[in-house]
Amino acid sequence: MTAQELQSIIAAGLPCEHLSVEGDGRHWFATIVSPAFEGLRPIARHQRVYAALGDRMKTDEVHALSMKTLTPTEYQKNPA
């Protein structure tokens, strides 16, 4: 899987105002800015991203994903 493919999968399942993905094909880091994160704790935000990925984490298609999840307001205050 490429960074662009992973980015497209996340964007298809979650409304994103900003989304960047980088990694080596197995280990990924994503910065995700979404209004869907409003009012959610970090673990719930991550669960929303995992839901967008579907079974790709379980099947090891995406081996590891670290992420920074922000609301648009948080991102405006401190851009990644």
UniProtKB/TrEMBL annotation:
Superkingdom of the organism of origin: Bacteria
UniProt KW keywords: Methyltransferase, S-adenosyl-L-methionine, Transferase
Cell membrane recorded as keyword: no
InterPro entries: BolA (IPR002634), BolA-like_sf (IPR036065), BolA/IbaG_stress_morph_reg (IPR050961), C5_DNA_meth_AS (IPR018117)
Annotated PANTHER family: BOLA TRANSCRIPTION REGULATOR (PTHR46229), BOLA-LIKE PROTEIN 1 (PTHR46229:SF2)
Family affiliation: Belongs to the BolA/IbaG family.
Name the record gives this protein: Acid stress-induced BolA-like protein IbaG/YrbA
Organism: Ottowia thiooxydans
